Amino acid sequence: MDAALKLGVEVTAAAERPSTLEAKNPSGLLTLDFFDPEMAARQAQDFAKDHPVEAVIPVDEDTAVAAASVAQALRLEHNPVSSARIAKNKYLMRECLKNNDLKVPRYWHFTLDDDIEERARRVSYPCVVKPVFLSTSRGVMRADDPSEFVAAIRRLEAILVKKDVARRGGAASREVLVEEFIPGREVALEGLIADGRLRPLAIFDKPDPLDGPFFEETIYVTPSRLPSGIQEDILSTVSAATRAMGLVRGPVHAELRINEQGVWVIEVAARAIGGLCSRALRFGEDTSLEELIIRHAIGWSVDQLERESRAAAVMMIPIPRAGALEAVRGIEEARRVADIEDVIITAHITQEILPPPEGGSYLGFIFSRAETPDRAEAAVREAHRRLEFVIE
């Protein structure tokens, strides 16, 4: 919304729950059923009769399929609905990438109604248990033997039966994807597909190891410090993955692992990076990622916008334990660290917070900009060291 305001673009915010102000602002607020994309498309068609629409932009997995359905109904350029469904469902993605000869982990797919003890004997170890539709590493767990596998499945089931989660997943909330654990360094690629070609916007190093038992992400640093040849392999791999999935337009966020065997595709999402992490990216003189996405969606040129030359880092502040957040100390001290741009606490006092695998959020975000990636990374680590979270 801020990016649209800066660009002078009128925006209608579509949400799955009605706003009390919708009647007062019928062109700016709209209720759509995100969990019934066909219904959302019909609702959007009715809306567009009085309020012509030029572009539809999803902001997360829950809205990606609905946005594709709306765009199709309004005859707007967008990813096909089938491609959006593949990007949202990790099992469909695995099948698609495997069938197109992309390097993906060996995997097994079943439902929570199957014989879990029997499944525990069939998978290989170590493995990673995950839901097929959640994000932010929610429900993702490593298992090193059959007993840990069974425990992880039961823990995942307790997450998936929650009312809000089950509604989001529909039939997929009974599905489980198990993958062979792939050792190695993990990176993320942020990109934009324009004219059918993937344009890389940034490659992020993830300097903290993500080996389990849970997979909460912490620090992203760009530009990547990997050799240029490996970075070229990352781009070519993600490009091949997006072509295989049929993605033809808009933002892409990909997660990959790199080891001596090459580049492995972990996930490709048809959306931009989540949370406030996009604030680590700037293009041109002072263009945000969201401005870039909007410019492209409405047909404005983005050819001349390159990422700034300075290095940047963002830390997604991890939740150390479950409880109620009672106080946050040291924010100003953290902001005074050299190269720190901002410290934003998104959790509110008295909020009940949960770490992974049950939780799917962070305490906040720390941003830095520096002359080198090493300095940017060191700054967010030092700022985090000065913060104290009181959790009861």
What does this structure look like?
This protein has 392 residues and is of the alpha+beta class. Helices cover 32% and strands 26% of the residues. The protein has helices at 2-7, 37-50, 61-73, 81-88, 90-99, 116-122, 146-160, 163-169, 228-245, 289-297, 331-335, 373-385; strands spanning 13-15, 29-31, 107-111, 127-130, 141-143, 175-180, 185-194, 197-205, 219-222, 250-259, 262-269, 282-283, 287-288, 311-317, 323-329, 340-345, 352-353, 364-370, 388-391. Strands 3-6-4-5 form a 4-stranded antiparallel β-sheet, sandwiched between helices. A 4-stranded antiparallel β-sheet has the order 8-7-10-11. Strands 9-14-18-16 form a 4-stranded antiparallel β-sheet. A hairpin with a 2-residue loop joins strand 7 and strand 8 (197-205).
User: What separation lies between the terminal Cα atoms?
Assistant: 35 Å
Please identify the top-level CATH class of the largest domain. Answer: Alpha Beta
* Residue windows where pLDDT falls under 50 for at least 5 positions: none
Structural class: alpha+beta
Strand content: 25-35%
Number of folding domains? 4
Radius of gyration: 21 Å
Helix content: 25-40%
- Spatial arrangement of strands, main beta sheet: 3-6-4-5
The main sheet comes to: 4 strands, antiparallel
